[in-house]
């Protein structure tokens, strides 16, 4: 349900009745539960504008609020003119009941669904996926899940780097390897493949010439070289698919539209921007100069779209891709989940695309920037000898560590059971540690913290879920049934209130594209459940109370499960 909006409407009506028409009500969840459920801060501003006494005005609004007994249990003036609200228990009960009865947890789908293109993961296929691709892949995936859940049409775009000069070198090396008969072996470690190809390229002038020749052949559509390129790309893509499968992300091969796809659109884009006078020739290159962005010298920063040798750039492909999303997919909103260090590229891209008319005013484009994953030393995460960490290795290590951990907590676990739990907890921990932080900040990657069963971690939340399930299992064994919800105790009331805020939080994530709001919410719910569990006996309560508490526990479990799923994290029945 839209709890915030529902309460806001009640407050707005009271403001209107009190003659405060154009004043913001400034409704927010109460800072402390002792104060109530919500707080209205708008009276002070309204009083100031009218040069009246804020407390008197607050008393007047409060009296009006109290008349709405359907929603409001109590309204009290506090401090210089705040109003603290407590919601009516019957109102909460009714909406909890509705959420419990609904597969979609009482969450409406949006009235006006948008077509939203999310560009995420998007690794360069010349190399193996490394930790740098983790954030884009899981943040994008979570946004995909949340926006889809709310009823939007999401089109995932895996804009893989599968084109460009380095592919000439890679194809040349592939041909060499095929001659020695070890091509498949060589391709099994892409990092090494790339390194070896680069060594050949730097050492051997003839090899380098062949590589350059292949670039030309690729661009002119030579079928034989294209076949080799396809072979390389497919093998690299298969590696990415393995990472996706282990991570459990939604991306499928159908979502891949690589840079190569736009090859034929690049010259038309350059020509069009020249014709519009947006791009000009500068030292032989075609460049867009935008007065909005200055370089260090204070001049308009250059956005190069074609090099002097005729080659195209990242920028050219992204301009073509925008046209494709807007014209082809009829997108209303474009989200690019890409490292914050590419901020200037996206600003120049969006500004150029707006001026060229590729990005009409009714389509929004957002760079969903994220910070860097750091090691304990506060520097970008690396292997001990300073190399890049392969994403696959990181995920395997997470699973191994989690498996050892669950085995240490429960020695009776069968091996396959332990491995399954280890996978779910390990992958969940890596994802959650990332998604729980505000995406724009850098964060320090720490195994001990993310795998802890205490604090704001995946294991804590997954464990909270199993606790709910264990209560429900016991209830089933004892043949007791859940029933009508009647919240009375403070701990129940706070949990109930939080459960009804799920839609508000999802809407916030959808609008802001910051998944950490959802993580914080789930942690809040789990903490409140834990308090409820300690303070309100469930299976020892008298029948009506027990039935109500079982329902509350069920809804908590459903909410945790759904919420974690929207972060791309699985739950377990026991752990
Ligand atoms: N392949 C790029 C990289 O690894 C990311 C691509 C992001 N998407 C885009 N449309 N520019 O940095």
UniProtKB/TrEMBL annotation:
For this protein, the Enzyme Commission number is: 6.1.1.19
Q: Which is one GO molecular function term here?
A: arginine-tRNA ligase activity
Q: What EC class is this?
A: ligase
InterPro entries attached here? aa-tRNA-synth_I_CS, Arg-tRNA-ligase, Arg-tRNA-synth_N, Arg-tRNA-synth_N_sf, ArgRS_core, DALR_anticod-bd, Rossmann-like_a/b/a_fold, tRNAsynth_Ia_anticodon-bd
User: Which SMART domains does the annotation name?
Assistant: Arg_tRNA_synt_N, DALR_1
Highest taxon, organism lineage: Bacteria
Domain named DALR anticodon binding: residues? 461-575
- Indicate which residues form the motif 'HIGH' region: 123-133
Q: What catalytic reaction does the record list?
A: tRNA(Arg) + L-arginine + ATP = L-arginyl-tRNA(Arg) + AMP + diphosphate
Work out whether the entry's keyword set contains Cell inner membrane: no
- Provide the Arginyl tRNA synthetase N-terminal domain boundaries: 1-87
**Subcellular location field:** Cytoplasm
SUPFAM superfamilies, per this entry?
Anticodon-binding domain of a subclass of class I aminoacyl-tRNA synthetases, Arginyl-tRNA synthetase (ArgRS), N-terminal 'additional' domain, Nucleotidylyl transferase
Family per similarity comment: Belongs to the class-I aminoacyl-tRNA synthetase family.
The UniProt subunit note reads as follows: Monomer.
- Protein's UniProt name: Arginine--tRNA ligase
Organism name: Vitreoscilla massiliensis
């Amino acid at each position: 349900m839209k709890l915030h909006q529902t309460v806001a409407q009640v407050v707005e009506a009271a403001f209107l009745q009190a003659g405060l028409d154009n004043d913001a009500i400034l409704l927010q969840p109460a800072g402390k539960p002792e104060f109530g459920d919500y707080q209205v801060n708008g009276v002070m501003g309204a009083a100031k504008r009218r040069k009246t006494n804020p407390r008197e005005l607050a008393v007047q609004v409060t009296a009006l609020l109290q008349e709405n007994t359907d929603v409001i249990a109590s309204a009290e003036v506090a401090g210089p003119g705040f109003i603290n609200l407590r919601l009516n228990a019957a109102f909460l009960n009714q909406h909890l009941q509705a959420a419990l009865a609904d597969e979609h947890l009482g969450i409406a789908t949006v009235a006006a669904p948008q077509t939203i293109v999310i560009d995420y993961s998007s690794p360069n296929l010349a190399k193996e996926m490394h930790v740098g691709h983790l954030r884009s892949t899981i943040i994008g995936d979570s946004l995909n899940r949340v926006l889809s859940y709310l009823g939007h049409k999401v089109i995932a775009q895996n804009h893989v780097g599968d084109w460009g000069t380095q592919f000439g070198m890679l194809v040349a090396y592939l041909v060499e390897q095929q001659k020695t008969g070890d091509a498949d072996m060589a391709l099994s470690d892409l990092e090494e493949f790339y390194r070896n190809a680069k060594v050949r390229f730097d050492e051997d002038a003839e090899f380098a010439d062949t590589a350059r020749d292949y670039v030309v052949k690729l661009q002119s559509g030579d079928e034989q070289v294209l076949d080799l390129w396809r072979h390389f790309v497919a093998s690299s893509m298969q590696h990415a698919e393995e990472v996706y499968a282990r991570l459990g992300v939604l991306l499928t091969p159908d979502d891949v539209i690589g840079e190569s796809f736009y090859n034929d659109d690049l010259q038309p884009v350059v020509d069009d921007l020249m014709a519009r006078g947006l791009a000009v020739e500068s030292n032989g290159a075609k460049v867009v100069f935008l007065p909005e962005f200055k370089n260090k010298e204070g001049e308009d920063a250059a956005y190069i779209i074609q090099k002097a040798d005729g080659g195209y750039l990242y920028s050219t492909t992204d301009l073509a891709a925008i046209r494709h999303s807007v014209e082809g997919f009829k997108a209303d909103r474009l989200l690019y989940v890409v490292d914050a260090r590419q901020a200037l590229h996206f600003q120049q891209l969006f500004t150029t695309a707006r001026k060229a008319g590729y990005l009409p005013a009714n389509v929004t484009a957002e760079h969903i920037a994220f910070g860097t994953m750091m090691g304990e030393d506060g520097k970008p995460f690396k292997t001990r000898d300073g190399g890049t960490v392969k994403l696959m290795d990181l995920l395997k290590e997470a699973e191994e560590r989690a498996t050892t951990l669950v085995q240490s907590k429960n020695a009776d676990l069968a091996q396959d059971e332990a491995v399954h739990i280890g996978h779910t907890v390990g992958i969940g921990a890596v994802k959650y540690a990332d998604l729980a932080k505000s995406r724009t900040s850098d964060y320090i990657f720490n195994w001990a913290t993310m795998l802890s069963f205490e604090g704001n971690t995946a294991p804590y939340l997954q464990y909270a879920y199993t606790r709910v399930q264990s209560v429900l299992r016991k209830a089933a064994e004892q043949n007791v049934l859940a029933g009508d919800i009647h919240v009375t105790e403070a701990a129940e009331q706070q949990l109930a209130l939080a459960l009804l805020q799920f839609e508000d939080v999802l809407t916030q994530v959808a609008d802001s594209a910051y998944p950490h709001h959802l993580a914080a919410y789930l942690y809040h719910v789990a903490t409140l459940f834990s308090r409820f569990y300690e303070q309100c006996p469930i299976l020892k309560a008298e029948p009506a109370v027990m039935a109500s508490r079982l329902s509350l526990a069920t809804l908590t479990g459903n909410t945790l499960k759904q919420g974690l799923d929207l972060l791309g994290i699985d739950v377990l029945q026991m752990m």
